[in-house]
Amino acid sequence: MTIEARKPIISDRLVRKFRLGSGLIVFTFVIMHLANHSLGLISLGTAERAQHWFMTVWRNPVGTVLLYGALLVHILLVLRLLYRRRTLVMPAGEAFQIVTGLLVPLLLIDHIVATRIVHDVYGYHDTYKAIVHSLWLTTPANGLRQSFLLIIVWVHGCIGVHFWLRYRPWYTAVGPVLLSFAIVLPVLALLGFAAMGKTVAYEAAEEDERGYAGGYYSDMRSFGEKGSVPGSQMADALWPYRAAFYGAFSLSIVGLFGFRAHRRLRERQYQVAIRYAGGEVVHAPRGFSVLEASRLGGIPHYSVCGGKGQCSTCRVQIIEGAENLPPPEALEQKTLNRIGATPDIRLACQLRPTGNVSVVPLLTPMAEATMPVYSQTASPGREREIVVFFCDLRHFTALTEARLPFDIVFLLNRYFAIVGRIIEENGGRMDKFIGDGAMALFGLRTTPKEANRQALKAAAAIVREIDKLSAELADELAAPLEIAIGIHAGSAVVGSMGYGSVKNVTAIGDTVNVASRLESVAKEFNSTLVFSEPVAQLSEVDITGVESREIAVRGRGEPLRVYIVSKEASSRFA
Description:
The chain is α+β, with helices and mostly antiparallel strands. It has 15 helices and 13 strands. The chain has helices spanning 12-38, 44-58, 61-84, 92-122, 128-138, 140-165, 171-206, 231-267, 290-296, 330-338, 396-400, 405-425, 448-472, 510-524, 533-539, and strands spanning 271-275, 281-285, 315-320, 345-347, 357-361, 382-393, 429-434, 437-442, 483-499, 502-508, 529-532, 547-551, 560-565. The strands form two sheets. Strands 6, 7, 8, 9, 10, 11, 12 and 13 form an eight-stranded mixed beta sheet that branches. A five-stranded mixed beta sheet has the order 2-1-5-3-4, with helices on one face. The chain starts with 11 loop residues before the first helix and ends in a 9-residue tail after the last strand. Residues 270-365 form the 2Fe-2S ferredoxin-type domain.
């Protein structure tokens, strides 16, 4: 008998969509609920009237099934996620998200029983006045507990939304607004609750010795006579519901770890040995990927894309046991083809050995990486759609060969000041200065269309300002200053790279190489600006009358159409 990696009935992508969708439904409910609380700052009556519309949405058959179905699905999918994880070692942020998610049902059970169950079973009308009286006056400890629950639910939801939206190109622009909303709404809700609590306390203080009219649970059809219901009697009636909910939740947690333990015991009978270049041996269950085995054994192993097969940083060379390896699937083969890998190179995140194997990770973390193996901080970057801008002074060596070093420094600083200022004014980010050349990135905080337009506008402005500088220094220069600019748009890995304190946000990839090549093409054609067809298409600028050619770019199988712009024509993009 062997244990092979089985393909799930429902794909992981579909499961993530269900988890996201169910979470968004619950989050929408929470937003409306907190907004309703916030109206307590106006008056208790305003909050009561708004509650009527709130209940209309969520306390009809459709709203009930949607809300509690989404809550149940979300909890079950989180438990499924925890079961499928091969190790519970994870980044602190991910662990916090899971822990807060599990705390939510634990803290929510009493509130659901005291409101929805009592309403549906006993006919209790849970008005704001009754609930606030209970949480503010009768049992203030429960009020603190519900306030803590509010914060936990809100933080958990906000983190989930952030992880969902963080790679959207527009998210950076609206991020500050969403952050303000995320801070203000729960604060207003808590202040609204406090305002209603003071109102109820004031009204209770004015009542006679009969106390709060109607009590907490009033108008109860199941208890016969209309009026207040003693707390002990209601507690006894609700005990079976609380026991059932807490019991089901506890059993699900115990069952989760029980199933994990059972799986581990079974898998120990069918393990494979994975040997590494340093002599380490990790015994992992058959069905584990090599990357999962590395993590299980605490062996540092790069995986920039998080084990999704979208990069090659986790690749390994097979030394022994090639006969125990399944052939690459389509996703892995595509990535291997892109890097021109030989047959003995495989992606560790996709490779699941069926027998013993010896491997050598080809990208080994440097000794400086003292951070945890799974730390997100260790990730060098992520893939993004950006615009890469290169510029360089033409004939710079000839211009400076007879000048003193300090004079060259002066000229370069004037040139760099022009380039840096214009790049930043047009929404770009300076990446680096290399000799008399510069590299900049556009699109880190805006849409592709706007980023390409910004890059072209910056190019036109730099050409104009370099002409002014050339005229100003005409008596000092043997020839006028001329600049060559190359712009290309596409996918690149953007992240903080370097060593020690010398780290900078930069980009690497084919897009960067092509942009650098286009700057050289501008020199070859004795022009000022060369930009690629993707830039023209994404920017939607008018290219009527602009010279275009197809050029061969080293490393690309197909020619690339580029647009060649003279100094005089560059002003049209300003």
